[in-house]
Design a protein that fits this description.
Layout (H helix, E strand, L loop, with lengths): L1 H6 L2 E14 L1 H8 L1 H21 L3 E6 L2 E6 L2 H18 L6 E14 L2 E3 L1 H12 L5 E4 H4 L4 H4 L2 E7 L8 E6 L24 E9 L2 E5 L6 E4 L7 E2 L10 E6 L2 E6 L5 E5 L5 E3 L3 E3 L4 E5 L11 E9 L3
Parallel strand pairs: 4-6, 11-12
Antiparallel strand pairs: 1-3, 1-4, 2-3, 4-5, 6-8, 7-8, 9-10, 9-19, 11-13, 13-14, 14-17, 15-16, 15-18, 18-19
Helix pairs in contact: 2-3, 3-4
């Protein structure tokens, strides 16, 4: 029997998997009544299925207020996610409903039309992380996207996906108009040309350590984990992988993914707090992990920024 079941599972299929999860339905049932609320939710799910088919996808199943779909193309999956959010905003916001979307790409197991495996688990996990109206996706899907699609995304966080031993970056796709996103730092593919060529260097000084960081040395992880961090600091308020310095779109960026956050004080400004956020490092600064700088006696990190623009 076991051998027969194994034969029924098709292996080696590369698929993009998308979950769309509707939030707010419980309140809808209370305010609108069972019949009307059920009709609204049913219409919404039917629209998701229609959009999926229009973008060459297949509806795998619905689970309560959640829909699982798959695509042969990662690019089609992203376009579907955008279309779902746009349709949702136009038709359902008056009902105080939101939809969260998570996507991943990779090998899946197919059995009787259903999908199983790591890719499915990753997409489901990212859907739970996403807030209403957000689209989150894995690094594996990033490699499948066009340059234009990558330009609408930015690194969102570093997380340990279900079953993984190490954290990996996840990305958020910004599907609104650019005018709504002028304050966001977006991911830029290496295939895209920077507007100007610069030679940028960061110097980190902490206790007796002095480390020089160039763009090709990023991401540069800071935290307690000796196996993954390049600057290791051991203190109770510091997470295992507290933050990292990345190089995106011609600038160094501090990205926090810790429990207690980061306190950053530019040399010409006031100290401010970052948690699950990122901020460009464009001037000399003092960085404290987990506590304000005046409470940190041993682990202050002094960041010296040097930027020499090319005149060639």
């Amino acid at each position: 029997m076991l051998k027969k079941n194994i034969m029924m599972i098709k292996k080696g299929k590369q698929r993009a998997v998308l979950f769309a999860d509707v939030s707010g339905s419980s309140a809808l049932y209370k305010t609108n009544g069972n019949s009307e609320a059920k009709a609204i939710i049913s219409h919404l799910l039917n629209q998701v299925q229609k959009i999926t088919v229009e973008h060459k996808g297949r509806v795998v199943k619905t689970i309560g207020d959640e829909v699982m779909v798959c695509f042969s193309s990662g690019q089609d999956s992203i376009e579907t996610a955008i279309a779902i959010q746009q349709n949702f905003t136009a038709s359902y916001t008056q009902h105080h409903l939101t939809v969260s979307i998570g996507l991943s790409f990779g090998e899946v197991l197919i059995e009787k039309g259903d999908l199983f495996g790591e890719t499915v688990n990753d997409a489901a996990y990212l859907t739970k992380l996403a807030k209403g109206s957000q689209i989150l996706f894995s690094e594996s899907l990033l490699d499948e996207l066009t340059i234009d699609q990558k330009a609408k995304a930015r690194e969102f966080d570093w997380v340990t996906l279900k079953g993984a031993n190490e954290s990996s970056p996840i990305f958020r796709l910004y599907w609104q108009q650019d005018s709504e996103l002028h304050n966001e730092t977006r991911y830029l593919s290496t295939d895209m040309v920077l507007e100007q060529i610069t030679n940028q260097i960061l110097t980190l000084k902490c206790e007796k350590q002095e480390i020089i960081i160039e763009p090709n040395m990023t991401p540069f992880m800071i935290g307690r984990n000796v196996s993954s961090c390049k600057l290791v600091l051991d203190d109770s308020q510091i997470s295992r992988e507290h933050c990292h310095i990345n190089y995106n779109r011609g600038k160094f960026v501090l990205v926090d993914h810790s429990t207690n956050g980061c306190y950053l004080k530019p040399v010409n400004g006031l100290e401010f707090y970052l948690r699950r956020e990122e901020f460009p490092l464009l001037e000399d600064s003092c960085l404290s992990l987990g506590v304000p700088s005046h409470k940190s006696t041993n682990h202050l990190i002094y960041i010296n920024y040097l930027n020499t623009a090319s005149t060639d």
